[in-house]
Amino acid sequence: MDIQKMYIDGKWQLSASNKTREIIDPATEKCIALVTDGTSEDVDHAVAAAKRAFYEDGWMDVSAAERADYLTKIADLLEKDKQAFAELEMRNNGKPMRETLVDVDDSVYCLRYYAGYVTKPTGQTYNVPDTNMQTLVVREPIGVCGQIVPWNYPLLMGIWKIAPALAAGNTIVFKPAGLTPLTIIRFFELIEQAGLPKGVANLVLGPGGSVGQTMAEHPDIDKIAFTGGTVTGRKIMQAATGNIKNVSLELGGKSPNIVFADADFEAAVDYAMFGIFCNQGEVCAAGSRLLVEDSIYDKFMAALVERTKKIRVGAGNEPDIEMGPLISRAHMEKVLQYIESGKRSGAELLCGGHRIDRPGWFVEPTIFAAPNGDMEIVKEEIFGPVLAVQRFSTEQEAVQIANDTVYGLAGGVFTQDGAKALRVIKKLRAGITWINCYNPTFSEAPWGGYKQSGIGRELGSFGLDEYTEVKQININLAVEPTGWFTAKP
Ligand code: NAD
Fold first, then answer.
1. Which atom of ligand 1 is nearest to 178's Cα?
2. What is the DSSP string of 185-226?
């Protein structure tokens, strides 16, 4: 098997470490690729290239139109290769093909969105009190951006970072999760094919604890953008203090999905499943806490459990499959431990709860009735197909339970009373919310969390702003001495 390489300064390179990493298909437990395993030294090379490309080779002066052209070219190449990318993502991550096809479509759309956005009007002018002054604000690229992503949407999470960073005129050093580098390696081949100047986009591979940590600490990285767990996010924030890096963090969640008695019943049941079992529950914004109003609780849960038992679990390329395996043995074991914790703490297991007896890291879609808000399965992010259901009897109680978490990423409300829906959504301490649906995500709209779910926003205009510095320019329209100091020469 060939060893897949990193892309640093326009060249495909093996790490000086000479170490390799096996990449495993989570549906078969078989090795599907070998990749080079990078080190801190490789990060240094990549950062030096990105710094040179930005300051010396002229990337900082490339026009927005030209940057947009590169992104459009890359989007076209990705679209042309959609099927191959979707298959590779399915094999590396495990999720069903119907999901990886959507991920590739979303990636193409996001690249095109930022290609279009970056040539549109920007900046502000101010009417300041001194009429002899014109003050204006321009946005400029930050410089060298380090970008680190997790394994749940390996390509899409990458594009959410790469597209706005390049659109805004930065250079990048990018690190995928150690488990899922394959589609991103292929994507950097497209970057090369599109002719992006060397050093502008660099790919490093390797462990978070060394390669990722070095990026977060690096004195020549001006901004670090991270998506991953809250524990890692905290480490990144601490590591970034050395040179006071600009930091943006997209972290975990334990998001509430609230169903009132007057909701459209079928839609609410359907989205309760979609909210937690889509992508095997490995979704930061998953509706992992379901809150159901007392008066419909029994009927709702009967329908939800009946439908959940019928979810077809299997390898992503099996026909009609609806849910794939978890990403790794270690992660599957963590999810199974949470299931055991749920049982021990007295939550009622309504369906699922076991590993599926076949090769691969498959866990049944699992639902617990979990009346006590202090249970681990209610409080902690499981990041798997495990739903904890609580009940409520008033609007006020629903809001109180919903906000009883250290996280604040997302939340949903189902009711046919429009005023109630908006009232409740406005009370939720969360950055991404849905009324009468769950999960739809758009490149146009900001993505990110309150509280311990992160800092900053990705996507939309907010996502582009995260990759810019703000500069005020004050122009004197009446050029003459101030006369402040009166002594003459
Ligand atoms: P993780 O935090 O373990 O790893 C994420 C990335 O950080 C990986 O590339 C990893 O190699 C790297 N990393 C690990 N330790 C590091 C360190 N000390 N310094 C720098 N980098 C380091 O997360 P994961 O298990 O890959 O992903 C699951 C988590 O990601 C969940 O908590 C989930 O909620 C979160 N997530 C959040 C969003 C969002 O948009 N808010 C999206 C997807 C996933």
1. 11
2. HHHHHHHHHTTPPTTSEEE--S-IIIIIHHHHH-TT--EEEE
> What domains can be seen in the chain, in order of their start residue?
3-251+453-474 (3.40.605.10), 256-435 (3.40.309.10)
Structural tokens at position 331:
């992660």
Verify whether ligand 1 is closer than 6 Å to residue 381 (CB atom).
yes
Q: Which atom of ligand 1 is nearest to the CA of 383?
A: 31
- What pTM was computed for the model? 0.97
Which residue's alpha carbon is at the smallest distance from atom 10 of ligand 1?
A: 208
Q: Which two tokens stand for residue 94?
A: 């495990």
∠ CA 47-51-56 to the nearest 5 degrees? 150
Q: Check: CB of residue 279 under 8 Å from CB of residue 316.
A: no
Q: How far apart are CA 483 and CA 489, in angstroms?
A: 13
Tell me the per-residue pLDDT of 313-367, one tens digit each, with 9 for 90 and over: 999 999 999 999 999 999 999 999 999 999 999 999 999 999 999 999 999 999 9
Q: Whose CA is nearest to atom 22 of ligand 1?
A: 208
